From TrEMBL:
Transmembrane segments: none annotated. Coiled coil: none annotated. Residues 79-255 form the FAD-binding PCMH-type domain. Its cofactor is FAD. Keywords: Disulfide bond, FAD, Flavoprotein, Glycoprotein, Signal. PANTHER family: OS08G0158400 PROTEIN. It holds the Pfam family BBE. Residues 1-27 form the signal peptide. It comes from Lactuca virosa. Belongs to the oxygen-dependent FAD-linked oxidoreductase family. One of its GO terms (molecular function) is FAD binding. This is FAD-binding PCMH-type domain-containing protein.
């Protein structure tokens, strides 16, 4: 009896092709990394060799180095795209070599200072192009000169470190920047930077007098050599679109040796909607020395029913008696009393505002460990007209329908209204009552949970449409939000950039930013999903 053998060509060749393609892809990635690494070592300054500063996925320390500055756990999943290399730069020459070699080998470069980019764009990309990360955390020197009232601050320093080093030398100097001490200077300053001193002194970028930047040719520039247009662009337009900011020179501001803080709480049962309506009427008109924030979240009351809690964390550059007198005159609805107030130094107020217990040593500001680490989503809006009592009541009801909602209203006015919207790329000046921060935090990991909570945030954002700015619906660059537009950086890159660019910068500033970009980085080497495109928009 004859035995017949049949051969299924497709069942054999297709798996073989998959194996070959997979092997080729892996080998290609490895060879790119090897060539890139060799280029870096060849171009490194012999005085500052790259010994131990390069981490590939084959290195056992790679996961810990990558994860050390991931501040949003949405972007720490197994499915999250990973860099082919991390460079933990110790010297500007390491960054210069990275720029030149990345251009040679057509790699996408990411720059991470503190890892607080809300969409993870400092260490993640949706591009299919291989990418690497330049981690700036070692470049953290801070040189404070009280005599000149200035400080040079490297991009890898944190805000907590900046505040601590200033307070080491003076109890009557400060700097206007954010309340979270673990935020990195590089991204925070370059995107605008705001905090409790904004109504008195404006934004971080309004108090920056010089900078050091590595450009697309690997040259280290300062304000004079880069020119005023590029200096303007990296003080509010996002440094990563134009180069790698190595350091900023900041102008310190003066504060009293004693300031006053409080954080009173009011709930819906305590006429919160009336208080909120009055806040929106007066918050931007109060004394410039007063920063009175208003935040809402959902809690359960004594009857185990959902209610809205309002918190009013406040900083006043003066004593408690003057503060209570001021509020009794302009905002009596809040009902603040002397017993609510605490007098302390400005550096202690930084700890207070970050929810550290009273009496926490100021050295806590040097910790780089976040107080909370979880997945989250943040969005932003600007309020230009008052919101009625009924409007707030409807907002509160919507918050209770959804999960984990938190809304923070940050007051504008004061110095912010005195600075031209064209002075810096940040345009949100006169005419704004407040900026809204939407925040949703969750603990469950995984894509399914993320999509669920992201949807809650988007539903709340959509509901707020009647209450906020229009044409464009403005947004804050430091509150990165890819929901409002992404750029593929193809032939339509300029037009795609308008979608988010007008929201972050408004029309005139966006156009100026693209002109600067086209001049200093015509090949669009420095880019991400929301970077400033060139006028031609194609990467050659």
């Amino acid at each position: 009896m004859a035995i017949t053998y049949s051969f299924n060509f497709k069942s054999f060749i297709f798996p073989l092709l998959l194996v070959l393609l997979s092997t080729h892809s892996s080998a290609t990635s490895t060879s790119i990394t090897d060539r890139f690494t060799q280029c870096l070592n060849n171009r490194a300054d012999p005085s500052f060799p790259l010994n131990g500063q390069l981490y590939t996925p084959d290195n056992s320390s790679f996961p810990s180095v990558l994860q050390a500055y991931i501040r949003n756990l949405q972007f720490n999943e197994s499915t999250t795209p990973k860099p082919i290399l991390i460079i933990t730069a110790l010297h500007p020459s390491h960054i210069q070599a990275a720029v030149v070699c990345a251009k040679t080998h057509r790699l996408l470069m990411k720059t991470r200072s503190g890892g607080h980019d809300y969409e993870g764009l400092s260490y993640v990309t949706n591009s299919k192009q291989p990418f690497f990360v330049v981690d700036m955390f070692n470049l953290r020197s801070i040189n404070v000169s009280i005599e000149d009232e200035t400080a040079w601050v490297q991009a890898g320093a944190t805000l907590g470190e900046v505040y601590y080093r200033i307070a080491e030398k003076s109890n009557s100097h400060a700097f206007p920047a954010g309340v979270c001490p673990t935020v990195g200077v590089g991204g925070h300053f370059s995107g605008g930077g705001y905090g409790n001193l904004m109504r008195k002194y404006g934004l971080s970028v309004d108090n920056i007098v010089d900078a050091q930047l590595i450009d697309v040719n690997g040259k280290l520039l300062n304000r004079k050599s880069m020119g005023e247009d590029l200096f303007w662009a990296i003080t509010g337009g996002g440094g990563v679109s134009f180069g790698v900011v190595v350091a900023y020179k900041i102008k310190l501001v003066r504060v009293p040796t004693t300031v006053t803080v409080f954080n009173v709480q009011r709930t819906s049962e305590q006429n919160l909607s009336t208080i909120a309506h009055r806040w929106i009427q007066v918050a931007d008109k109060l004394d410039n020395d007063l920063f009175l924030r208003m935040t809402f979240n959902v809690i359960n009351n004594t009857n185990d029913q959902k209610t809205i809690r309002g918190l009013f964390p406040t900083l006043y550059l003066g004593n408690s008696t003057a503060l209570v007198t001021l509020l009794n005159k302009d905002f009596p609805e809040l009902g603040v009393e002397i017993s609510d107030c605490i007098e302390m130094s400005w550096i202690e107020s930084v700890l207070f505002y970050t929810n550290f217990p009273i009496g926490t040593p100021t050295i806590a500001l040097l910790s780089r460990t976040p107080q909370r680490l979880n997945p989250f989503k943040i969005k932003s809006d600007y309020v230009k007209k008052t919101i009625s009592k009924q409007g707030f009541e409807s907002i509160f009801e919507k918050m209770k329908e959804l999960e984990n909602q938190m809304l923070a209203f940050n007051p504008y006015g004061g110095r912010m209204s005195e600075i031209s919207e064209f002075a810096k790329p940040f345009p949100h000046r006169s005419g704004n009552i407040a900026k809204i921060q939407y925040e949703v935090n969750w603990d469950e990991l995984g894509v399914e949970a993320a999509n669920r909570y992201l949807n809650f945030t988007r539903v709340m954002y959509d509901y707020m449409t009647p209450f906020v700015s229009k044409n464009p619906r403005e947004a804050f660059l430091n509150y990165r939000d890819i929901d409002i537009g992404v750029n593929s950086h193809g032939k339509n890159g300029y037009v795609e950039g308008i979608v988010y660019g007008h929201k972050y910068f408004k029309e005139t500033n966006y156009k100026r930013l693209t002109m600067v970009k086209t001049r200093v980085d015509p090949s669009n080497f420095f880019r991400n999903e929301q970077s400033i495109p060139t006028l031609s928009s194609s990467w050659k």
